[in-house]
Amino acid sequence: MMPPEVAGRIVGFYGNNYIGLPYPKTEMIASKKITINEDNAVDLFMNDGCLFANPKGAIEIIKADERAAEGKLFFTNICISTKKETIVTDGFSRILFVKN
Q: Which domain holds residue 48?
């Protein structure tokens, strides 16, 4: 397993669902906006087996210090097999930094 700083990703789980978000720790600065696109994608799995592509959106860091970062996020993704669009308009993330 790679630490998030090396992988550049973080993953959050809710039951069998998960979301993977870009994690550029050096950009975890209050008021910073991180663009979501094909190169900096959101991975999303929601029990329907879809592989999502064509992400568009952003994460806005609203609070950050040496212990944690919080952000608002919005994005759209399209399921490759069904063409179903998933839209997140008012998401929230909180990342706690772990020191070894």
A: 4-96
